[in-house]
Amino acid sequence: MKIVLLGAPGAGKGTVAKLLSELDGSVQISTGDILRAAVKSGSKLGTKAKSYMDSGGLVPDSLIMEIMEARLQEDDCTKGFLLDGFPRTIPQAEALEKLLAKLGIALDFVASLEVPRDVILDRLTTRRTCSNSACQEIYNIKSNPPNPDGTCKKCGSPVIQRDDETEEAILNRLETYNEKTAPLIGFYKGRGLLRNFTSLSSKDTVAEIAKSLKG
């Protein structure tokens, strides 16, 4: 499958992508992951990206697209890919459209994960993350809690609430999403690629997307 996953912070894109990848071996790709991998590899593109990241600046779209082009041509993408939270803006969507055309790749569709605002707030304010940068396992104090003493079940490090997952920070992230990313829904609707899925349960959402693929 070749799918773009759209959705607000807390819509479940990462979880849905992970579950979908288990269905047919399609690889989950997020901007953060490919940037970190490029930096770690020490490649020419990775070194360029590192210089922006080290200075606290944003990696420019042109460089992100170069790294994305290299990533989509790696062997593990032959089975398919799931773009998790990318593109984020209309210019990125236009650049991705040109890139896919250049590579001769056609998307199956763009899945927009729709979740009520109150559900997103509840999901993110109850999320906790392992403080070990090499682990970063994600928990939810309601549905998937860490150890009773507040440590990670995988590595034993303390589990924390990230600064960007307080209620105030989440409301700011949702505002940014509505301003910059939500317009992508109209962009892909105009291309005839958009399909909407209610994302209250990741397993149900995955089942609906799989059904839509067959249809």
Distance between the termini: 13 Å
Mean pLDDT: 92
Class by SSE composition: alpha/beta
Shape verdict: globular
Order of helices and strands: EHEHHHEHEHEEEHHEH
Q: In order across it, which strands form the biggest sheet?
A: 2-3-1-4-8
Characterization of the model:
The protein has helices spanning 13-24, 31-41, 44-54, 61-72, 90-103, 117-125, 167-181, 183-190, 202-214; strands at 2-7, 27-29, 81-84, 109-114, 127-130, 138-140, 159-160, 194-198. With 215 residues, the chain is α/β, with parallel strands linked by helices. It has one domain: P-loop containing nucleotide triphosphate hydrolases (Rossmann fold, 3-Layer(aba) Sandwich), CATH 3.40.50.300. Helix 2 (31-41) packs across helix 4 (61-72). The model has no long low-confidence stretch (mean pLDDT 92).
Which labels suit this protein?
single chain; three-stranded antiparallel sheet; 49% helix; alpha/beta; Rossmann fold; 9 helices
Helix-strand layout with pairing:
Elements: E1 2-7, H1 13-24, E2 27-29, H2 31-41, H3 44-54, H4 61-72, E3 81-84, H5 90-103, E4 109-114, H6 117-125, E5 127-130, E6 138-140, E7 159-160, H7 167-181, H8 183-190, E8 194-198, H9 202-214
Parallel strand pairs: 1-3, 1-4, 2-3, 4-8
Antiparallel strand pairs: 5-6, 5-7
Helix pairs in contact: 1-9, 2-3, 2-4, 3-4, 4-5
